[in-house]
Structure formats: C-alpha cells, structure tokens
Design goal:
The chain has two helices and five strands. It is α+β, with helices and mostly antiparallel strands. The longest helix is centred in the last third of the chain and has 13 residues. Bound molecules: zinc ion.
Length: 87
Amino acid sequence: MSTTTEALQDRTFHVRCPKCGNEESFRVEVCVMANLYNSTDDMQTYTDADSDHEWDKHSHARCGADDCEWQGEVWELEEAYDQARTA
Ligand SMILES: [Zn+2]
C-alpha cells in the first residue's frame, strides 16, 4: 500500500464527486446562527454570524472541481466514495 493511498483512507471526510471523481474540494451549505441588530435611531442594521456551523448528510453540496457542475447532497458524495472503494 502506498503512502498516498494510506493518506486518502485517513481523511476525516470520505467524499467523492459521483460525476468527476474529485475528492479534494467541495462546497457545502451550512447552517449558522447569527445575531441580528436592528437599530431604531439610525439606519444601522447588520448580522454577526457565529463561527459555529452545522451540516449533515442531507446538506446541499457542490463539487469544487473547476469544470464540474455536480450538485446534490452530502450522502451522495459519501456513497460515491464507498462505491469507488468497493468496485
Ligand atoms: Zn465533480
């Protein structure tokens, strides 16, 4: 087993694009709580997002590869990862 293969299997996120096979870069929609300020005496309104965020296997995802336009949910990326390794 090569060092590269071992590194791939040690990744925290086991995801793979079902369209192009990319395993490195993805966009995932996350849920984040934010403070919303709505001042009454001037026009200052703004939001202040927390650094904590959540996502799960049903979160919307996009492939991060330059020429790939795959979109779906995180579970589809995990399924593609598993299929690539059991094939
Ligand atoms: Zn892709």
